[in-house]
Amino acid sequence: MRTEHKRTLAIVTLTAVMMWSYGCTNFIPETSYEQTSETAGINEEQLMEAAGITVAGETEETSESSEETAAETTETTELTEPPKRSVLVTFIGDLTLCSDARGGHSARSFNNVVKGDMDYCFDNCKDIFAADDLTIANLEGAVTTRTGHKQKQFVFKMAPENMQMLNNASIEAVNLANNHSMDFYEAGYQDTKDNLDSYGIVWSDQKTSATYKVGDYLIGMFGICDWDNANDAYNRIEELKQAGCNIIIATCHWGTEATYQANSKQIYLGHQLIDRGCDIVIGGHPHRLQPIEKYNGKWIAYSISNFCFGGNLGLSDPDTVILQCEFVMDESTGKCVNYKLNVIPYCQTSSSGNDFHPVAYEWGSSRYYRVLSRLGWSQEDE
Known about the structure:
By secondary structure, the protein is α/β, with parallel strands linked by helices. It has 2 domains: about 10-80, no CATH class; about 85-375, Metallo-dependent phosphatases (Purple Acid Phosphatase, chain A, domain 2), CATH 3.60.21. It has 10 helices and 16 strands. Strands 1, 2, 5, 6, 13, 14, 15 and 16 form an 8-stranded mixed sheet that branches. The protein has a 6-stranded mixed sheet with strand order 7-8-9-10-12-11. Strands 3-4 form a two-stranded parallel ribbon. α1 packs across α2 (about 45-50).
């Protein structure tokens, strides 16, 4: 939160004069310190006189004149340099903090590898998450103790206590709009929401938006699962606008699994979400990285893949990424005026197979550049 600091007019003016006297480039862009040597002989009394601060023998008229000058100087600064602040949000892909509910007894299963260590999964990246204003993930699966589930190829059930992993890693918010949230039916989904609430984790989906306050700014978020729910997404955008959100974030579970390119429906919907008021769109579900697009000045990441995915004991493609967007805000309007994206190439595992322990790729390595290539990103990008 920005803190206002009050200063007297005389000090403002004195500072201005001192900076001018020493050739400050903010006042005289083309004058160096050496080029202003004629001012080197000015003593403290002269500086105080120039600033309008009363010294021995100074008249009241001089003091009043300097106060007017100081007021004019302060007003000019406020008009030409409106204050701004940045909000830093981190995005990571799918989190499944469990193995398949019907086959989690292998020695390589999530529970048997992690062994209840609430810091294990994210200890390589939690410092990144702790240093931002908000971290958002896609939580894929139910958070419940129920046993009755749908008959599907994969069924994911996370232990409620595993939500402590999110707290310990400073992951403050999750999207629930995905194809595994209802694995344990509506009752299991309600358990998921209740358990997240009990751990203080913000959640949203296609029917329910959420907000998160950062300083003077309100961040709105919602999720969407597949193309058929586009109207729900549009309604959530309007809802968040009405709530006065300064930043609106969409998390989309879309696209075709095991593909490296966005399909036409993803592209169309991504553009629609931006056009209707989203500030950034983050995609997932393909379990692969897909390109990042800058559309109308804003970012669409079509897929950032899995991040910590207990649903697979082995990984056919371990590449993932941590995305960070710095939303540069204009405090005078409350609007975002710039979007600076940072890409951090990551691996979903720190060893062969899948140990559910993401780690950064070494900068400059072939794997590092492979991630950048799949995202269509380069170091010259923002």
